[in-house]
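subagent[fold] <- orchestrator: predict structure for attached chain, return tokens only, no commentary.
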Amino acid sequence: MPRRIFIGDVHGHYDGLMRLWDAIAPASTDQVYFVGDLIDRGPKSAQVVNFVRKYAYGCVRGNHEQLLLDSFVGGNVNLPTLQGWLHSGGQATLSSYGGSAEALMDHIDWLRRLPLYIDLNDIWLVHAGVNPKLDIANQSSYELCWIRDTFHSSEQPYFEDKLILTGHTITFTFPNIKPGQLVQGRGWLDIDTGVYHPRSGWLTALDWDNCRVYQVNVFEPELRVRTLSEAVTHIAPEQIKRRQRDTVSR
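subagent[fold] -> orchestrator:
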């Protein structure tokens, strides 16, 4: 039976992605989707983009792709945005192109065509989430690529009949979540386990149809395969709201 497999934020960690890919061993009939943030921070963003272009069934645009796209608009350089992108891991991405402006521009053209979301009927794939107060037609790239607590603290699922699958927010940044765990809230599931972060190093792939989670660690020669129930921790909206109140009161 064909599998639908979702891979979390790769952030330029091509070698880790190759180890994960070997563990998953996708068949030609399997559909592999990426949740965005292919680039930045890690050392081989260009290689990651090349691979995803060739082998992914689908990929949505992440906030790091959006930062890159906003830095080069209409053949011009937006200097303030470029500086922000470079500060957010873009320098490693530039280095991965080895000075080839042609290759970079080719990838920018491809990244610009990535959708902001993919509707798979039971799964709604997006990088960051949605603004729970807006309908789909009024969601901007900012909401879909950048939103965090406003989405995660929503009391009601956004969709009645589908799960929103995201990356963007590293799961251990939620209250009481261990590095490497997935996080599930009201109508959403986050699979960004912080591949680049020294507290984690985990890159995650979710085999949705078999409820199986594959993970490799980019800092250690470690691979693990768990059931989804073992790998996921559920979180209540009140836990997110409490964190917001604690942050404001400090």
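orchestrator: received. Logging for downstream: The chain has a mean pLDDT of 95. The longest helix spans residues 79-96.
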